[in-house]
Amino acid sequence: MSWQTKNLFSFSDELLSSVQKKWNIPQWLAQLLLSRLGLENPSLAHIDQYLQSSLKDLPDPFLLPDMDQASERLCQAIVEQEKIGIYGDYDVDGTVGSALFYRFLRALRIEPVVYQPDRHTEGYGVNKNAIRKLAEQGIQLLITIDCGITNIEEVELSNELGMDVIICDHHEPKEILPPAYAVLDHKRKDNDSNIDSLSGAGVGFYLAIATRSMLRDIGFFEENEIAEPNLTALLDLVAIAAVADLVPLIGENRILVKAGLDRLNKDPNLGIRELLNVSGCKLGELGTYHIGFILGPRINASGRLGTANAALKLLITDKLDEAKKLAEKLNQLNSERIDLQSQVASEAIEQAEGYLKDRADNEAAALVVYSDHWHEGVIGIVASRLVEKFGRPAIVITFDTKDKNGKGSVRGISGLDMTELLQENASLLMGFGGHKVAAGLSIMRENIENFQKAFSESVYRKALSLFPEGHGLIKREISIDVNLTSDTEISHEMIKVLEKMAPFGMGNPEPVFRISGWKINGVKTLKERHLKIQLSSAQNRSMEGFWANGVDSYAFTEGESVDLACFPQLNTFRNLNRIEFKIKDIRSANETT
After folding, report:
1. Region 381-387: what's the mean pLDDT?
2. Fewer CB atoms < 10 Å away: N or C end of the chain?
3. What residue spans of 108-219 are helical by DSSP H?
4. Are 490 and 16 in contact, with CB atoms under 8 Å apart?
5. Can you list the domains of the chain with their CATH numbers?
6. What is the reported pLDDT for 307?
7. Rounded distance, CA 232 to CA 238, Å?
C-alpha cells in the first residue's frame, strides 16, 4: 500500500498566523484546519463556524423544494385528525427515520400506521400491494421515509385510491418525479439551496421542523393545549441514520451528528439505551464508531434476517420490559448475522481471488461475484468487505430469491459514481437505484456473465480518465494529511483541537498523520485480529498504538524502526486519559513511497 501526502491548499502567512494565535496551535495544525474547510479563500469566521457550529447554524428547511406544501398538507392532516401512514425502508435509515416520525406525530396526539416492506418478499421501495393495504385501512396521507423517489406508478395508484403522498427521500431521482403531493429530496435538479446531503431520516427531520414551525404559527399548540414536540430528543436517531447510511459528515450533517452524539451520550431513546446495554457500551464514551459498528448492525440485523419490525418496535416503545426483550432479540440476530456474513464473505473472497487471477486490467477493474445460495440480507456487507480487501468496486449478487432473478448490492470507492456506471449497463439489468457509493440492482441469470465483463470495462474506462497513472486500476493508497517530525508536537492540547474537528466519518475522515522513526518495543495480538503495539520515539517517549485488523499486515521485528500512518487520539478507558495512536498502516523507516 502506497502513502501519498495530500496537496493542501496554500494560504497566506498572515491567515495562518491569525489562526495560530487565535487557537494557540502550531502552523501545521492551522494549515490542516484551513484545508479541511475545502475553501480557496477561507476566513477566521469560517474556522469558527467549523469548530463551533451548532443547531442554530442549520439551514432553513423551507429552502427545500416542496417543503411549503408538504408541511402545509401535514399540518392539515394533524389539525383535522386524518389517518396518517408512514412507509419506511427496512434498512437503518428507513427504520430509524420511521421511528423518528412516529415519535414526532405521537407527540402531537396522532397515532400513525407504520408500514415496512419485507426485504425478501417485497424488496426495496414502495410497492402496489402495500399501497392497497394502506388505503384499505383508511390512510389519507402517506409519508415515505428513505424511499419513494422512483415509485411513479405506485404514487399514481395511491392518488387513484384517494391517498396523498409526501415523499421524504435522498436517493437519486429519475428524469420524471413521482406525482406526489410533495417530493422532498435534495437531489432534485431544481434544488438550489445549500441542503444537499441529508439521510432519509434527516429529510424527515427537516419536515418535522417545518411542520412544528407552521403549527406554531397557526396557534395549534395553544388551542389544543399540546406541548410543542421536543425535536432535540430525536437527534440521537438522526445521528444514527446519518452515520449508518454513510452520508457525508460535512455542513449540516456534521452539526446534526455532533448534536445527536451529545444526546446519545446523555439521554438516549429508551430502546437505544437498552441496545447499548446488551452491547456492553457505556454512555459518555460513544462516538461514530459505536453507531457504525455496534448500533447500526444490530438495528439492521432485524431487516436482514427477519423483518425490520423488531428494530422499529424497539425504537418507538416507552416500556422498559419490552425494550429489554427487543434489545436482546436484536443482539442475538446480530450474532447470527455475523456467522452468516463470515461464511458468505469467505466464499465471495475465494471467488473474487479466482476471478482476478491472470485477468487483464480492463476485466479486473471491478468485481462481480454471485451465488445461488448467499443470503440476501448480508450481501451488502460482503460487498463492502470486498471493496476493503481488493480496493475496487464490488457487486455481490444472490439468486437465492423468491422470483429466482438475481438481487445484488453494489459498493464503490471515492471518485466513482456507481449509479452512473450502472446506467451505462442498464440494458443488462432489470433495475437499479441508490447512491454514488452504494446501490442495489436486479438482474436475470442469463445476463450475469455479460454484465460482469461490461461493468468492469465501464469502471476501467472511467478510472482511467480519473487516475491515468493507475492505468485504470484503483490504486490502494493512504493519503497523509500531516507529516510530524517531532514527538513534542503530539500533546493533549493538539488532541483537544483535533476533537473539535469531529465527528469523523464519510466526507470528514480522521486526519492521517505520518509519524516517523518510532521503534517497536513489543506487540500483543487481541481477538486474533487486532494488534496492540508498544512504541518509543527517538527522544525515548513511550506510546501505545492500536491497529485494528492489523494481524495480516504486520511483518516487523522488535527493535525495528518504523513510520506510522495513524491518528493520535485520547484513550479514556478506565479514566486513563492517555494519548495513543490509532494505526492505519506501518512500514519500515527506510521505505520512500
Report:
1. 93
2. C
3. 128-136, 152-160, 200-217
4. no
5. 2-52+479-588 (2.40.50.460), 61-331 (3.90.1640.30), 358-470 (3.10.310.30)
6. 61
7. 10
- In the DSSP assignment, the letter for residue 573 is G
CA distance 56 to 53: 8
Averaged pLDDT score across all residues of the chain? 91
CA 418, CA 174: separation in Å to the nearest integer?
15
- Buried b or exposed e, range 428-458, using 16+ CB within 10 angstroms: bbeebbbbebbbbbbbeeebbeebbebbbbb
- Give which of 509, 435, 510 is closest to 91, Cα–Cα: 435
Q: Give the Cα separation of 367 and 5 in Å (integer).
A: 28
CA distance 322 to 319: 5
Task: For residues 91-96, give the mean pLDDT.
Answer: 94
Q: What is the mean pLDDT of residues 252-273?
A: 96
Q: What is the pLDDT of residue 275?
A: 97
Residue linked to cell 464473505: 345
Exposure string over 401-416, b if 16+ CB within 10 A, otherwise e: beeeebbbbbbbbeeb
Indicate whether 32 pLDDT > 80: yes
The yes-or-no verdict on residue 181 having pLDDT over 50 is: yes
What one-character DSSP code corresponds to residue 212?
H
Q: Residue written as cell 442475538? A: 332
3-state DSSP of 426-483:
HHHCCEEEECCCEEEEEECHHHHHHHHHHHHHHHHHHHHHHCHHHCCCCCCEEEECEE
- Residue 325 binned pLDDT confidence (cut-offs 50, 70, 90): very high
Position 472 confidence tier, pLDDT thresholds 50, 70, 90 = very low
How many CA atoms lie less than 13 Å away from 253 in the CB half-sphere? Answer: 27
Tens-digit pLDDT profile for residues 409-442: 999 987 889 999 999 999 999 989 888 888 999 9
Task: Specify the 3-state DSSP secondary structure of 238.
Answer: helix
